[in-house]
Write a structure and sequence with these properties.
The chain is α+β, with helices and mostly antiparallel strands. It has 2 helices and 4 strands.
Length: 94
């Protein structure tokens, strides 16, 4: 499964932040929201998909739990793109 994550916006601090973005899975694009506790690349990230997105993923034959786990893994590992002007260092603890 090739999943690519793009961050649209981040609100908050290094301790807790709300993330909005989208991910591509094969040739399909889906939106997500997530809450990061601790910091990006840190301790805990909870991603959420809309019911519509979950339904669409199921129709395409994807396991929703597996997609969410992969999305969270990418966010935790910093495997994502961010908007121009926003650097990962601005919201990642060193």
């Amino acid at each position: 499964m090739e999943l690519k994550v793009h961050i649209n916006n981040i609100h908050g601090s290094q301790m807790a932040a709300k993330i909005t973005g989208h991910f591509t899975l094969d040739d399909n694009e889906f939106r997500f929201t997530a809450i990061a506790f601790g910091r990006i690349g840190g301790q805990n990230i909870g991603a959420k998909l809309s019911q519509t997105t979950e339904t669409e993923l199921k129709k395409l034959g994807y396991d929703v739990d597996e997609v969410i786990m992969k999305l969270q893994q990418n966010l935790l590992q910093g495997d994502m793109t961010v908007p121009e002007g926003l650097k990962k260092e601005s919201f990642v603890d060193d």
